[in-house]
Amino acid sequence: MGFFAFAQLDEVYHRVKANALRNGVPGASTVLIFVSPDADALCALRILVNLLKSDCIAHKVVPVAGYTDLSEANEDHVEANEELRSIIMLNCGGLVDLTEMFSLSEEMTVYVCDSHRPLSLQGLFGHDQIMFLDDGDVDQMSDLREAVEELEFAETDSEADENAEEEGSDSEASASEGENEDPTEEDEVGEVDEKDDEHRKPGKRKKPPADEAMEIISPPTKKVRASERRRRRKQQQRLIAEYYAEGAYYGMSVAGIIYTMASQLGRASNDFVWLSIIGLSDQYLHDRIDQRRYLSQVETYKDEVARFNIRHGGGDENDDIDSLFGESATKSGPGSAIIRNADDHAIRCDDEFRLMLLRHWTLYESMYHSSYVATKLGIWKERGRQRLTNLLVKMGLPHKESQQRFTEMNITFKRSIRDKLSSVAPRYNMSEIIFPSFCKSFGYKGVVSAPDTVYALTALLDWGAEWITRHSAIAYSEGMRPVSSRLGRPGGGRDETSELGTGGLAGVGVGTRTGMAAVAMRTGDSIHDDGNKSDEDDEDLAEEEQERRKKEKQRAWVRNFYVAYDALDSFDILQQGIQLSMNFQRILVRTGVSVLEKKLTQTLRTFQLAVLTGEGLGSAIDGSGALTDENDFSLFGRSPAHLGRLAKFLMDAFREYRQKDLPLVIAAFNTVADAYLVIGFTGSTKGGVVRKNTFGPAFQRAAQRTNARIRHDSFETSVMEVRKEDLTDFLESLQLFMQ
């Protein structure tokens, strides 16, 4: 069996623990964890690491951004590692046959916890050393399992039949040769009856016995069986091909799966609940699951929250919203503050607005930069911006209040926002502007919602180390303790300020990134040519510069990963991520508005296309000093996460204002790689159903047809890097393979 059923996930941990104890070498690192760079996997890692640390199981964490990283990690951490017993994959590895990628010894077992679909059927059903953590999908794949097993043994059966036919042919040939042998030779060996030879009439053949007659008609029966096997084989191959051709989609969040495992072990906690909620929110906010699945999971987590967070005293249904905004749940006075204590880490169920980072922005900016509101109102047109102003007027909010930071608004207006927005929004086709979510208290410091946490983690994964480093320098100059001094690694809490500032690694393990998902910018000094170098020296310098950039990019990405990891339990770092996310969102909306205003998209037969070359749009961020000297489009050309969010923004706009509801292909030029980062995005329908993404197989076929130079290294099948010269031919060919 190649998987653990959803009700038996605790068996995974028991096996990992038993293998670690059975190793017998004190302090040996028997567990290796590969984790992809997304908020969901980050939360799953935090839960798993806490479980391993509580049992004193030595482990190593290796962040990986693509399959190139996995191949390199195999050489560095798996191959010839005699101590290694368990390899755990978090949101990676489920789409390929890992036995071909890893050099596994007999003692090693790979446990795959991946939300990406479709899964590799060969890895799922073909190997005992590859074990998947099932979220319920695999139990419903009995027909596919039967198909894989039949095809696996079909070749063996065919070889056996061929051998049998060859043996039969040999025996017939031997019998024929025996009839033509010289009688004298037969007498010499004593194998022929002389009387039978005398009575045998030449030219006549004896009528075969009944048994021999059956043998004569048996060959057609073999042909029928072979034909049936071929028909069955084609049917099974077609079933498997249809499974892969359905397109990419997502299963349960990996944080949710690891939390379920912890719960079955009887070791669930309030912190684990919060981490799994963040994983669920990450999927929902990035259109990986539809609203129906999200609401179903929310109901489950409401029960978990109620189990770990017992509320004392009475209150009404608005208590959670008031406490989230920092006001008194008892409403004893207009200026009263909620009573908190340093140990308050409670999680509360809360209705969330589809407004981007509302608690950290002004109401107007939050609505303007919200993809939901911006695309519904059409803010890329003057009429759309006027509609936004009219909406605020109909809510009865003075202009001054809407331009005030939300936390500093008049409490009377702040309390009325929920009711007024709920009544006015449907007039502007925004009936789903409120959705259920959760928030968590961080003691005296404040409260953060799950969506805001997702936005912050996503931003930190892209640029966290650079942002923290620059703001640490500002903090030092102002005499404050820098945030980076609190950064640590999953296994410890020592000061990482010096390492973070000098390009060191703040975390456990070694991670590399050579795929197009690398977004961290180069921070070192450039190499200057003094004009006296030869051509060979210039080539050597160019190679050295390229290698140096590659290493710097790898170091920056790993630092980003561990900054985001530390933010999971650090309110201060999380606030830095929120500020960074606000800057990224400004870029996104500004770029999306420019694309729509300048009509940089075109509608083709099977999809919509947007190619971003982006010249003359100015720097990505103004005076904050984080992303200076960067063009808006160059940022998207190096970040699949943010290019995907831009694609979602454009798709939402197209769905509202265009008749054709077609998927989108968006390409952004990466000046460093001299190539285009291409993403195929299907999004959701007007009914809120998330469509399966069929761009992955289409990308591969289009590249093969045109011999385009591509790089398909991401764990996301719909993300690809195409050389600048090959983009036109690639896109023309892509139209033929999209249906």
UniProtKB/TrEMBL annotation:
Signal peptide: none annotated. Residues 151-232, 482-505, 523-550 are annotated as: Disordered. The keyword Transferase does not apply. GO terms for cellular component: DNA replication preinitiation complex. It holds the Pfam family CDC45. Residues 151-170, 178-196, 535-545 have a biased composition (Acidic residues). Its main location: nucleus. Residues 525-534 have a biased composition (Basic and acidic residues). Residues 222-232 have a biased composition (Basic residues). It is found in: Nucleus. GO terms for molecular function: chromatin binding; DNA replication origin binding; single-stranded DNA binding. It comes from the Eukaryota. One of its GO terms (biological process) is mitotic DNA replication preinitiation complex assembly. InterPro entries: CDC45. Keywords: Cell cycle, DNA replication, Nucleus. Belongs to the CDC45 family. This is CDC45-like protein. It comes from Spizellomyces punctatus (strain DAOM BR117). The lineage of its organism: Eukaryota, Fungi, Fungi incertae sedis, Chytridiomycota, Chytridiomycota incertae sedis.
